[in-house]
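User: Here's a structure from my thesis project, written as structure tokens. My advisor, Dr. K., wants to see whether a designed sequence matches the one we expressed. Can you design one independently, without my sequence as a hint?
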């Protein structure tokens, strides 16, 4: 048809223009490469031209191929993680020694390096918070007032956290906040006005790691005697202690 013929002519014209442009750019590239070498009339000039012409024809194609390869690799690459703006700590077994279902502030004891780690994060300009499962409430072993009193004691010992989030539900309740679900992490991030991807979650068991990953935050595992070997094996980042964990965040 006339339309198809017109399209074919337009495509041919575009190809011709492209070929002329490519030839012109290649000639300019050759001239630039010949510039520092021997001049016309010099005994080595013709030999230099013979050496330069083939590579001047192939280099642009190779450059385009490398650019396309780089673009393809970039498309499939994992995005670089955002700069952290907040550190969210697990409470029991991470910031304080784990006393099962503790409702007594007098029994609160900081883990080694906890105050120094929190202070270091705070000094670097990061917000700090706590995300903690407290299933003792659902089990009837303590009430929310007791949990809040223990949290207040931890707050006092650590110089005040920017946000606290705890889950009162049990494992069978099917809530979205109990770790390894992401709700505590996303809620704390919202409290702090940051994206969950800008948060680092530091904890001592696999549920802390899984909650971080589910929220698209970055996890750091600090193992204790209760941490299972497979949790250590599967964690993306493992630190021997809290200070080292915060150091990983700040690297």
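Assistant: Designed independently from the structure alone:
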């Amino acid at each position: 048809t006339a339309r198809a013929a017109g399209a074919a002519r337009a495509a041919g014209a575009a190809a011709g223009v492209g070929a002329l442009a490519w030839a012109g750019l290649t000639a300019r590239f050759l001239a630039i490469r010949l510039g520092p070498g021997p001049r016309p009339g010099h005994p080595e000039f013709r030999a230099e031209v013979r050496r330069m012409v083939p590579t001047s024809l192939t280099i642009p194609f190779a450059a385009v191929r490398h650019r396309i390869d780089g673009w393809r690799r970039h498309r499939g690459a994992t995005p670089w993680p955002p700069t952290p703006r907040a550190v969210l700590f697990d409470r029991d077994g991470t910031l304080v020694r784990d006393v099962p279902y503790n409702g007594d502030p007098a029994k609160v004891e900081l883990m080694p390096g906890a105050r120094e780690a929190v202070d270091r994060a705070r000094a670097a300009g990061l917000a700090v918070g706590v995300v903690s499962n407290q299933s003792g409430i659902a089990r009837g072993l303590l009430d929310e007032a007791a949990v809040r009193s223990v949290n207040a004691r931890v707050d006092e010992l650590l110089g005040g956290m920017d946000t606290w989030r705890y889950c009162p539900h049990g494992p069978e309740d099917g809530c979205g906040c109990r770790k390894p679900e992401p709700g505590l992490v996303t809620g704390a991030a919202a409290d702090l006005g940051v994206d969950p991807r800008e948060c680092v979650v530091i904890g001592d068991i696999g549920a802390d790691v899984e909650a971080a990953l589910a929220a698209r935050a970055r996890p750091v595992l600090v193992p204790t005697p209760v941490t299972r070997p497979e949790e250590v094996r599967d964690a993306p980042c493992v630190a021997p202690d809290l200070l080292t964990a915060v150091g990983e965040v700040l690297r």
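When you compare it with your expressed construct, this may help: The chain is about 50% helix and 10% strand.
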